[in-house]
Design goal:
Elements (H helix, E strand, L loop, with lengths): L3 E8 L5 E8 L5 E3 L9 E5 L2 E5 L9 H28 L12
Antiparallel strand pairs: 1-2, 3-4, 4-5
Length: 102
């Protein structure tokens, strides 16, 4: 299956709603994290899905915001390691992840 993204909204009988964004990216994914600006945020865009992660007070983050940002960094590092592990496992002939044909 090719790359795609979608958003779902599930509304329960009591009126509460759960919104989910699923992103299965390809080379068209855009991940931006502007540095040296007056606010902290990271933006992920693919297809028509757009996700921004930022502290509630992006110009004045709290210690808890720092903890959350570090947890996100750890989770993304673990995700990258898992993708690399699975890529290696499923490509025993040694096709490099850097190879554009991979």
């Amino acid at each position: 299956m090719g790359a795609y993204s979608y958003t779902t909204v599930q509304v329960e009988p009591d009126g509460t709603a759960l919104t989910s964004v699923s992103i299965y990216p390809d080379e068209r994914v855009s991940v931006l994290c502007p540095r040296g600006k007056n606010r902290a945020q990271i933006s992920i865009t693919h297809s028509y899905a757009h996700v921004i992660i930022a502290p509630a007070r992006a110009t004045s983050p709290t210690a808890e915001d720092v903890r959350v940002a570090r947890k996100l960094a750890e989770s993304f590092a673990a995700y990258a390691a898992e993708v690399e592990r699975l890529h290696t496992l499923n490509n025993p002939q040694g096709v490099s992840a850097e190879d554009p044909a991979a």
